[in-house]
């Protein structure tokens, strides 16, 4: 690659990473504020169905390209489908924060992926007219969004290539990793904080290392089966909900009622919102 073109790409990835990292910081701040507000006002949970109906109408107005963000991203990368709309970034951010404010559990993975991809796609439309270059930028955007939101840039780069079905050992890993590292740096520079998780202490004994590695391999096998069941169950449930409740607003409202019913059944708030240990401190 010519030196001038290399500099152009580095500058492009740097600016894009700054935007994604800043958006990730805004998302984490808003998520913390929504969570604290929910703890301060537990009655907000009873308004979750109403919030779901409002978001359902919002997504219906914006169209299927926003309401099915991951499918739009995959379609754009693999099948030359419609471009990923930039409005997906603020829409998924607002929807996730509102969901957590009222006690729903939307997670952060989808928001990280869709926000990063939408920003990268919008940025790519000004940077290049090449379809291949645009797809690469989307991959970098996914890596940056995931790496910045979770504070795991290396995992973000690998996840981005796995998400779009590319081989991890490819030339795309370098720009994806650089974008994820830069986006995470910008996110932390804004003062955002990531959820702390317990550390694994391997010790100094080779036997201890071997035992822990065997346990991790067994855990990975079990988790892979559980994830497979979860994905199949999620797809089945989503398909049936779309068949029974074709209107987005009705579907979201019923989903809110189901969450409240499950909360009353288990009798604990541990499964509302993010459900992390740090959230309950």
Helix content: over 70%
Q: How many E strands?
A: 0
Number of helices: 11
CATH topology: Clc chloride channel
Q: Gyration radius, to the nearest Å?
A: 20 Å
The count of domains is 1
Q: β content, as a range? A: under 5%
The appropriate CATH architecture is Orthogonal Bundle
Distance linking N and C termini: 51 Å
Sequence stretches where pLDDT stays below 50 over 5 or more residues? none
What structural class results from the helix and strand content? mainly alpha
State the CATH class: Mainly Alpha
The CATH superfamily is known as Clc chloride channel
SSE series: HHHHHHHHHHH
Mean pLDDT over the residues:
85
What is the structure about, briefly put?
The protein is an all-alpha fold and 281 residues long.
């Amino acid at each position: 690659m010519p030196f001038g073109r290399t500099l152009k790409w580095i500058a492009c990835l740097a600016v894009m990473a700054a935007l994604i990292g800043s958006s990730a910081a805004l998302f984490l701040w808003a998520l913390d504020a929504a969570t604290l507000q929910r703890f301060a006002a537990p009655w907000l949970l009873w308004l979750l169905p109403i919030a779901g109906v409002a978001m359902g109408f919002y997504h219906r107005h914006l169209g299927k390209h926003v309401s099915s963000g991951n499918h739009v991203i995959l379609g754009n990368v693999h099948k030359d489908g419609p471009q990923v709309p930039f409005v997906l970034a603020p829409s998924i951010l607002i929807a996730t924060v509102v969901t957590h404010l009222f006690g729903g559990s939307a997670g952060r993975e989808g928001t990280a992926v869709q926000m990063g991809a939408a920003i990268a796609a919008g940025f790519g439309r000004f940077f290049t007219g090449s379809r291949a270059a645009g797809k690469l930028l989307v991959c970098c955007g996914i890596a940056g969004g995931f790496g910045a939101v979770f504070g795991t840039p290396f995992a973000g780069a690998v996840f981005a290539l796995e998400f779009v079905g590319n081989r991890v050992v490819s030339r795309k890993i370098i720009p994806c990793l650089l974008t994820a590292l830069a986006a995470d740096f910008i996110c932390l520079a804004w003062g955002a904080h990531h959820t702390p998780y317990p550390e694994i202490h391997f010790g100094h004994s080779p036997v201890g290392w071997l035992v822990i590695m065997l346990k991790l391999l067994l855990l990975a096998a079990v988790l892979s089966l559980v994830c497979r069941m979860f994905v199949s169950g999620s797809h089945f449930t989503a398909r049936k909900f779309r068949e029974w409740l074709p209107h987005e607003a009705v579907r979201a409202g019923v989903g809110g009622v189901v969450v409240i019913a499950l909360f009353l059944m288990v009798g604990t708030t541990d499964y509302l919102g993010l459900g992390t240990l740090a959230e309950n401190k």
